[in-house]
Write a structure and sequence with these properties.
It is a single chain. By secondary structure, the protein is of the alpha+beta class. It is built from 12 helices and 24 strands. Strands 14, 17, 20, 21, 22, 23 and 24 form a 7-stranded mixed sheet that branches. Strand 23 (493-501) and strand 24 form a beta hairpin. Helix 10 (374-388) packs across helix 11 (433-448) and helix 10 crosses helix 12 (526-541). The protein is globular and about 100 Å long.
């Protein structure tokens, strides 16, 4: 038997890390080849990670909600020697705390983002020394921690940097922007901290459990600086050391463990942040005082205001947003804040199109093996209009307009969970109706099964959303940034309409629908927006009812 190391696979050029959201298999379970082991999430899409080999799962190296770098070892699978010949293996189970060290250079050298990561053991040793006393439980990815350790940024400083990622998470770009704008201040802060930091001296265990009483100082008396002592160091210094309090350290296998030391100063002395210290393996640990039991919260009144002032009643249910819903919410709010939205509407007579599809759909499915829905027809019409009016196919960057060469049309797809995802049909103008139908059916099916890849929902230049699926006749959709326009397709209804004939006007029953176009008024004026939606209308109304399948 041998242990196969399952790596977090590459999920697109722009994806360097992912969050584990669910383990589908537990240690001891037998896994078939290509069977999914866990579910992961990136900022773009959720997906499953299959096993390339068959065997028994022996160890999970990461927990749910851990952020893992692409190429890191995430699990060990016990396989037969024959199956493991061409796969990396260690024979022995590696320490849980350093799974990324087990990947060989041949396996990780082409993985994006890994060149920015330090050796995991180095990060463990450096991080405590730079901690600067943060008591926050804010999450930081390994990449952010690595950059912070290299630049000498403490956790206390990281806590003050505003994050732009999901749930306010600090991203690599946030940290790099902070470093670029605050290099001088950071160097001064580090120099001041280095000048006030004493050289640690050994300490006896007896002195560890003593709490030196603070000395009172007159208000006009000069206050000496506090001396901060790491655990295990003696109280041999001219300045008084004040009460030391310890918290149980986190113990890492075959790696330094961390001791947390807050310093409490008496009145008149400057308050200083606590520190984290890395201690060597096997160093004796002190007895830690029992933490006081948390007090039970008092009963709340029947109705109370929430954080944003909304009153919550006793019978109300609070439902936490899932990860995808939070991403959608942030994306929508961001779009409305960035782009001044304008929406234009137009009514379309699609009788010829509806009658042609009804006549051709069975033949189409028999000939090409694909169901013919209205969506590829609308995509064909939109792509034709974009080619005629390319300034609708742009993005905005500050004062610059980026004119996109490719016409990549996203189609909003509702998921069984109630969330929404927008897979992208690339180069839609180069596809015919058959290939458009194939792309639409494939992407929609895999979207609902949570099988999309990150690259399949990026680089869209225009989006359509079919609100008619739910019986809605029109809508005012929000632009999918960084695009500048989105079209909503209303329900097709039979209505009496006036039609012109050589013998005069007549009233007939026609298939009618509304198109709604929301556009960014920074770069798309009413003339372009109105002309574009009229161009799509003309394409649909002039549909050839005798078109060959």
């Amino acid at each position: 038997m041998s242990n196969y190391q399952l790596l977090l696979p590459k999920m697109g050029e722009s994806v360097a890390e992912a969050t584990i959201i669910k383990w589908l298999k537990n240690p001891g379970d037998y896994i078939e080849a290509d069977e999914a082991i866990l579910e992961i999430a990136t900022d773009k899409v959720d997906s499953e990670v299959p096993s390339p080999v068959a065997g028994k799962l022996t160890e999970q190296l990461f927990k749910v909600d851990d952020v893992v770098q692409v190429g890191a070892v995430i699990a060990l699978i016990e396989v037969e020697e024959k199956a493991a010949v061409s796969t990396p293996s260690t024979g022995d189970v590696p320490p849980k705390t350093a799974p990324a060290l087990q990947a060989t250079p041949a396996q990780t050298q082409n993985i994006p983002g890994l060149s920015q990561l330090e050796n995991r053991e180095t990060v463990v040793q450096q991080q405590p020394l730079q901690a600067g006393g943060s008591q926050s439980d804010r999450f930081y990815s390994p990449l952010v921690k690595s950059i912070a350790a290299q630049e000498g940024v403490s956790l206390a400083i990281l806590d003050t940097i505003k994050g732009t990622g999901a749930e306010g998470r600090l991203t690599k770009e946030d940290l790099l922007n902070y470093l670029q704008n605050n290099t001088g201040k950071l160097q001064q802060s580090q120099a001041a901290a280095a000048s006030s930091q004493p050289v640690p001296q050994p300490q006896t265990q007896a002195s560890q459990q003593q709490a030196v009483q603070p000395q009172q100082t007159a208000p006009n008396q000069q206050v000496p600086p506090l001396q901060q002592q790491p655990y295990g160091m003696p109280l041999q210094q001219p300045q008084p050391v004040y009460q030391q309090a310890y918290m149980q350290p986190t113990v890492y296998q075959q790696a330094p463990y961390v001791v947390y030391q807050p310093i409490y100063a008496p009145p008149g002395y400057p308050q200083q942040p606590p520190l984290y210290y890395a201690m060597p393996p096997g160093y004796p640990q002190p007895l830690y005082p029992q933490q006081p039991e948390p007090q039970q919260p008092q009963a709340q009144p029947v109705a109370k205001p929430s954080g944003n002032g909304i009153s919550i009643g006793a019978d109300d249910e609070i439902i936490e947003m899932d990860r995808m819903r939070r991403l959608i919410a942030d994306h929508m709010v961001n779009s409305v804040q960035i782009a001044p939205h304008v929406t234009s509407f137009i009514e379309v007579d699609v009788t010829n199109m509806v009658q042609w599809r009804e006549k051709a759909k069975k033949q189409f499915e028999t000939k090409y093996g694909q169901k013919l829905t209205f969506t590829p027809i609308f995509i064909e019409a939109v792509a034709s209009a974009i080619k005629a009016m390319p300034m609708i196919n742009v993005s905005v960057s500050g004062t610059q307009i980026i004119k996109r060469k490719n016409i990549n049309i996203g189609m909003a797809t509702a998921l069984p969970t109630g969330n929404l995802i927008v897979p992208v049909i690339r180069n839609a103008d180069e596809k015919n109706l058959v290939t458009l139908a194939q792309s639409v059916n494939d992407l929609a099916d895999r979207a609902r099964k949570n099988k999309l890849q990150p690259d399949e929902i990026k680089d869209g230049t225009f989006t359509i959303t079919n609100v008619g699926t739910f019986g809605n006749v029109m809508g005012t959709p929000i632009i999918n940034q960084p695009q500048v326009a989105i079209m909503a397709l209303g329900a097709i209804k039979k209505k009496p309409a006036v039609i012109e004939t050589p013998n005069g006007d007549m009233i007939a029953i026609r298939h009618m629908m509304f198109l709604s176009l929301s556009y960014d008024h920074r770069v798309v004026d009413g003339s372009l927006g109105g002309s574009f939606i009229k161009k799509v209308t003309d394409y649909l109304e002039s549909w050839d009812s005798n078109r060959e399948v």
